[in-house]
């Protein structure tokens, strides 16, 4: 080995140990890299698989708890919306608590306001209006 390989060889000797750096071939290096093993002198230390380490398992458990919490919150908000929609449907069936002989332009304005709020919601939910892509 000459000139430009020498600094890399020196680094390998420092990192892996002199015996290993002088004896390893490129095929052996590839095999060790694929099998996550590291040599230090005469001993072999197997690297931990990051997917099976306790730290990864703790993160995975935390992520699972987080997903479950998000699902519970989602279902809670959906139940709130379903309840509001049911109340609005009942109010609509009762003509918004208005008697036909007593309806005036104020009642029309109130319904117009309700309709504009519901339109904002449906536009957002269905990507329509200002929310269209």
Structure commentary:
- The protein has 133 residues and is mainly alpha-helical.
- 66% of the residues lie in helices and 6% in strands.
- Strand 1 (37-40) and strand 2 form a beta hairpin.
- The protein is elongated.
How is this fold's topology laid out?
Layout: H1 5-16, H2 18-23, H3 26-34, E1 37-40, E2 43-46, H4 54-93, H5 105-125
Antiparallel strand pairs: 1-2
Distance between the termini: 62 Å
Number of strands: 2
Number of domains: 3
Name the strands of the widest sheet in spatial order.
1-2
Mean pLDDT: 78
* Uncertain residue ranges: 6-11, 18-22
The number of helical segments is 5
Summarize the amount of helix as a percent range: 55-70%
Q: Output the helix-strand order.
A: HHHEEHH
> Major sheet: size, sense and barrel closure?
2 strands, antiparallel
Q: Notable features of this structure?
A:
mainly alpha, two-stranded antiparallel ribbon
């Amino acid at each position: 080995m000459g000139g430009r390989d020498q600094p890399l060889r020196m680094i390998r000797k420092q990192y892996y140990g002199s015996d290993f750096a002088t004896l390893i071939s490129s095929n052996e290096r590839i095999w060790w890299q694929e099998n996550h093993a590291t040599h230090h002198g005469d001993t072999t230390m197997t690297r931990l698989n990051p997917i099976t380490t306790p730290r990864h398992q703790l993160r995975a458990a935390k992520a699972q708890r987080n997903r479950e919490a998000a699902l519970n919150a989602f279902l809670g908000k959906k139940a709130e919306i379903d309840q509001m929609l049911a109340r609005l449907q009942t109010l609509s069936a009762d003509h918004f608590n208005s008697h036909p002989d007593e309806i005036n332009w104020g009642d029309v304005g109130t319904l117009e306001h309700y309709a504009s709020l519901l339109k904002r919601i449906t536009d957002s939910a269905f990507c329509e209006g200002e929310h269209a892509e």
